[in-house]
Amino acid sequence: MADPTAGGVAQTPPPGPPPSPTSPSPSSSSSRKGAGSRPGTVRSVTRTRRSMAVAFLLPALVLLGALVVYPIGYSLVRSLFDKPGDGFVGFDNYVEMFTDANIRTAIRNNAIWLVVAPTVATALGLVFAVLTERVRWGTAFKMLVFMPMAISMLASGIIFRLVYEQDPDRGVANAVAVTVHDTFASSSAFPKAHPGPESPLEKGPGGSFVTKRPVRAGTPVTLPLVGVAPDVMPDKAAPAKRAAPEPGKVTGTAWQDFTKGGGGKPDTVDPKELGYAGIRVEAVRDGKVVASATARADGTFTLPAAADGALLRYPADNFREPYNGVDWLGPSLVTWAVIGAYIWMWAGFAMVLIGAGLAGMPRELLEAARVDGANEWQVFRRVTVPLLAPVLGVVLVTLMINVLKIFDLVFVVPPGAVRDDANVLALELYNTAFVDGDAGVASAISIFLFVLVVPVMLLNVRRLRKEARR
Predict the structure, then answer these.
(1) DSSP characters for 94-154?
(2) Does domain 92-173+328-437+452-469 have CATH number 3.30.110.40?
(3) Cβ(290)–Cβ(310) under 8 Å?
(4) CATH 1.10.3720.10 domain position(s) in the chain
(5) Interval 449-466: pLDDT, tens
(6) N or C: which end of the chain has fewer CB atoms below 10 A?
(7) What is the pTM of this model?
């Protein structure tokens, strides 16, 4: 036979049908025969895997049933019985729950918590996460904001109980409030001052003090007061002096008519007595102020000739009580104050999660928006926020579930007198079960709280499934 390559012309094989792609090869046939010789292998492996899965899941299922399913079922049944648990009362416990004033307050406060706390904490976390990307010390700032998460709720409650102290010398919040207030409207140095029994002054309208008779130019007048403790007198106060007469002018002395240690005469200036430095004196005629003056360090003052024949008056502003700050833990603000403590703790949590989502955001979209002429606010509102919507949803739902069961802060921060005004469902559940001993109503509250949490959980599950489909 001739070699096909010898003559330089290749011999083509005879025409015929190409081999079928589905035709089995000998090796595949033998493989199938081998597999077919043991038909139960795949089934046994599957069954073994299922058995192993059940064996691994069984402890978790037992714990889930013991710690979740059984308590929910028992609470549901117990809520249908009376306080001792002997008599069936049906839905009476639920009726009592919605008619009791404390529980209604707790429901209202929970609604405030549910709307305000997650929204504000998420918004602050978003702002912090965006802004810290633009500063050099962003990492240090994130650490400071997240640090409260390392503190327990109980410890945070104790901290904010001190922060909200009414006394500005102890409470940080009121120390700041008083400082800001006194910067624009200084408090009076004489809040307790008042005329003595033999004083030429009498009480006037609005907390002022007015002379009993008109004054005359050239005749010095005395305007004594008492009631100011020596240790709170102005630092610039000097020993009082009797004013010298001046022709055509009204002069006088405003001073503390009290000698420490005793002695001295009423309505007489004594060298040991201090002048009311800085106190304001007005001359009033026909209800109108015609002249005014401020006392010097020794209490002396001088009014122009227009004061002749007028009454002298200490205006009420001289005796205004010092600003003592805001009653943060009062009945009207206590819930908002506790929410502030919660936001202080959880804004860092929101910032970290949102910052993680921000780090994974495609930067080319932001740059494209800027190239198209969008300013930073438009980029933030129309690009950054929509891209972060899934992360914002996770943070918001997590915080909503968390605030529905808030307990520690509400238990620690409010004083006992206003704890009912700050009441929430978890705290009311505790008080009803362990203070009042009414397990029936307490179980009804727990079921109601569970019903409130379920829609939020279902919303979270739905969101997770939607993310999984993407």
Answers:
(1) HHHHHH-HHHHHHHHHHHHHHHHHHHHHHHHHHHHHHHGGGSTTHHHHHHHHHGGGGS-HH
(2) no
(3) yes
(4) 92-173+328-437+452-469
(5) 999 888 888 887 887 787
(6) N
(7) 0.72
